[in-house]
Amino acid sequence: MNRGIILMNLGSPDSTSVRDVKRYLEEFLMDKRVIDSPYLSRLLLVKGIIVPFRAPKTAKAYKSIWTNQGSPLIVLTGQLQRTVQTQFDEPVEIAMRYGNPTPDAAYRSLLRKVPSLEEVILVPLYPHYAMSSYETAVEQMKEVHKKNKYSFSLKIIEPFYNNEGYIDALSEKIRPFLNQDYDKILFSYHGIPERHILKGDITGNHCLKSPDCCQVESPAHKYCYRHQCNKTTALVVERLKIPKDKYELTFQSRLGRDPWLTPYTAKRLTELPDEGIKKLLIVCPAFVSDCLETLQEISGEGSGIFMNAGGTSLTMIPCLNTDQLWIKALVTMVKQEMSD
User: Fold this and answer.
1) Which domain holds residue 278?
2) pLDDT tens across 199-218, in order?
3) Looking at residue 24, which CATH number applies to its domain?
4) Same structural domain for residues 249 and 302?
5) Rounded Cα gap, residues 91 and 243, in angstroms
6) Which of 41, 142, 249, 252 is the most exposed place for a label (fewest CB within 10 A)?
7) DSSP β-bridge partners for residue 93
8) 95 and 215, same structural domain?
9) How far apart are CA 71 and CA 268, in angstroms?
10) Burial of 206 (0-12, 13-18, 19+ CB in 10 A)
């Protein structure tokens, strides 16, 4: 069968100019799966309030992490693509949910290389299911596929939050850092509004209904971001034998005033020093590639918050990026999809 592979990530602005950042933020925040309010309300909120005030600040944040090659997320995803390509005869392309390269550009590139393309394996680079990340990426690829009436089929790799290869790669990424003197390790995941969890509850009566809902078996877990984050953490902690009092799960990147998943990373960073936690490790398992949320929000801004609150050291553990065990896990998942 004539196949192609697409690795899909979130995306970045084309540059650090306020104009490009504004364009990127508008595309991102106007996504109905990110801000899930009615279109006109979303339009007023995003283009009238959020973006005009947020774009200059976000542009400054991107400037603090931008490399000579461009956005770290784009650069690292490109490196991932080139490394994965060495393991396949089939062409491997990248697509971004927002910005460039677009889904359509990725499809067209595959067709140029394989005119008789029969099947595309889509790999959303999101370990956990959330409507504002995995779901919107998949639905965008489906919409473009349908709109252009492509004849090839589309197969999609499911969230891999509990995949043995992913857990192994993440655990081994963390392991060396546990050899240093530390008081606690935070597993900081990207936050989402609580209403997104409730919307994704296919049972209608499980998620957020009890303190231990993530530990009680339910069909809702297939689409529950909170459960999947908890599961990833539990598997890694078990693999690394991290004592219960030495780790914590938090959620970062809150936007707006609505209730989001708690505890909030930023709030905990201000509280932990008073609890005797002076030396902190942070890992961000929701991201497979380092990006604004890890390099600036955690390593930059988060470190400042923690140190100003009385902490003495904050070490951010890099994302998987192009680690060999991660490459191995990714290649294995794609090959398994091809064989099914």
Assistant:
1) 164-316
2) 999 999 999 999 899 999 99
3) 3.40.50.1400
4) yes
5) 44
6) 41
7) 6
8) no
9) 28
10) buried
